Prior knowledge:
The chain is mainly beta. The protein is built from 1 helix and 13 strands. β10 and β11 (150-156) form a beta hairpin.
Amino acid sequence: xxxxxxxxxxxxxxxxxxxxxxxxxxxxxxxxxxxxxxxxxxxxxxxxxxxxxxxxxxxxxxxxxxxxxxxxxxxxxxxxxxxxxxxxxxxxxxxxxxxxxxxxxxxxxxxxxxxxxxxxxxxxxxxxxxxxxxxxxxxxxxxxxxxxxxxxxxxxxxxxxxxxxxxxxxxxxxxxxxxxxxxxx
Length: 185
């Protein structure tokens, strides 16, 4: 076993005792359902795609939760984390919430760190060419999002109450790893 795989196994084991569940084991996409046209693949313990538009949708649904994931994109890439999806066959901002990762979005009010059509980013966070740890807390109608520890969004909205989560590839190279979720009581 490689050292990095051993460390990941130890981290995941420790996290599950705290209620965290890993949605990606570093090897397969077994926890996900694929929709759209993205060319999802697993390479070196990372989920990646470089063709739009597609989603990996979780098999489970969630109401209140904490999610954390590492995301790597190029500055021109378009990625995101969808949550409380109501139409799993065609996830999107018309039927779910999206924490957007898109530094060069034409409408900057929906750029990286925004919850699209719900909350503008609180700060300008540029995610291109580096790993960004995303932390999303969703409890009732309240959402908070952090990127590398920085608070980037706060919102209150009641449109969607429950649903799966998804990771998105909507343009450019996108990578995800260490995707974990913990349901809140």
